[in-house]
Amino acid sequence: MIQFILNNRLVQTDRAASTTLLDFIRYDENLRGTKIGCREGDCGACTVLIGSLKEGKAQYISATSCLTPLANVYGKHVVTVEGLNLPEKLNQVQQAMVDCSGTQCGFCTPGFVNSMSGFALTCSEPTVEKAISAIDGNICRCTGYKTIERAAAKVTEQLLQKDQKNPLSWLVANSFVPDYFLTIEERLKEFQSDYSFTGQIPIGGGTDLYVQKHDELHDMDMDYLFDKKELNGIIFEGNQCKLKSSVTVSDLIENETLLHAIPNWYKYLKLLSSTPIRNIATIAGNIANGSPIGDFTIILLAMKAQLTLTNKENVGRKVMLKDFYLGYKTFDKKKDEIISEITFEVPASGKFNFEKVCKRQYLDIASVNTAMVVSLNRNTIADADVSMGGVGPIPKYLTETSAFLIGKELTATTVKEAEQLLQTELAPISDARGTEEYKRLLARQLFFAHFITLFPETIKIDNLL
């Protein structure tokens, strides 16, 4: 039996572990406020909150329920829009949406309310920018967003008074969430901590597999890895960072060590999908997807990442990420192996840059993306690692371009010569995301952007034209 708290009620079900949380909420529990939109995690209409214990405290994330298997909410607290209702009045987020005319047809509204309520539950230093960021996974086709942004600003203004010593009590007292939230922490502690769902096919957050194989998953023998303790955690040893395979993008975007070490780290990772997806998308899943334009794969290639692959007998082996991809969706990985650990070098100098071009700035797949790590000895390039996606059948580590840069003086001439070599390493094709010529142009411009961004005093755009 799968058990979890749904709003204020304990739920037990024998439904298949692969059943999506969205389908269970709507069809088994008849909670129709959670809407069916795209079923791909793109529109946010099915957004719910998921609370779990971390270091003995209940912490909440927003998540797309259309991509969440029931197995991944075992022992947790799932909150739909119905679970945010107060007995006799609207809660503060709902009221802000009404006051600011933040809803028209209403289809997307529950998702926005849940995402803003999640922001209220988690923010320690509320700002309007952060509030708007919290709803970056929710799409509205009616309002033009400005009224919703005004609602987010109104919520933020109220949250500035939040008591950070007793945040949950303050939220209850000030009509943000119902009072049953005060009991959740103790109720979650009553669940078994060692319950697991094991099978033959490994799945993490499900954000890719549930898009590709939604109907087939019900017949698959799945091994659910998302909450396995041995596959979670971020460890730093010197300038090396070790990620267990169930670490999510949000775990990394919020990591204080990386935020301190890499300027613009938050800005770069904001380009990866949306908040509800980042909350459940695992780094290992982004790698194992094998997409030629996987954003985090491109980042890790430039950081000289190494994978640990572990089989059913718990025997591990190491492989460099740049050697992992043998061809399109073909890997140096045996059937019984999973990616159990990812190790990469944190750029000691902070000279890291990530660039991405897509049809819309956020929540989209790249046409071309690229990353670079570079270090200087005076004005000589001591080391360089460049990667690029969307320019071939696999995520590409640019071996020849990286080697060419090492030992060269940092000048516009060096950069232009390196770009000419870079073009020989690319093999883009024309597809829905752009022609071959367009992708080669993007590769050129984004490669130049690395140097213009990292060395603005030395490399000027006019000298590269």
Automatic annotation (TrEMBL):
SUPFAM superfamilies: 2Fe-2S ferredoxin-like, CO dehydrogenase flavoprotein C-terminal domain-like, CO dehydrogenase ISP C-domain like, FAD-binding/transporter-associated domain-like. GO terms for molecular function: 2 iron, 2 sulfur cluster binding; FAD binding; iron ion binding; oxidoreductase activity. Residues 1-84 form the 2Fe-2S ferredoxin-type domain. Pfam families: CO_deh_flav_C, FAD_binding_5, Fer2, Fer2_2. InterPro entries: 2Fe-2S-bd, 2Fe-2S-bd_dom_sf, 2Fe-2S_ferredoxin-like_sf, 2Fe-2S_ferredoxin-type, 2Fe2S_fd_BS, Ald_Oxase/xanthine_DH-like, Beta-grasp_dom_sf, CO_DH_flav_C. Residues 173-349 form the FAD-binding PCMH-type domain. The keyword Lyase does not apply. Signal peptide: none annotated. Keywords: FAD, Flavoprotein, Iron, Metal-binding, Oxidoreductase. PROSITE patterns: 2FE2S_FER_1, 2FE2S_FER_2, FAD_PCMH. This is 2Fe-2S iron-sulfur cluster binding domain-containing protein. It comes from Flavobacterium silvisoli.
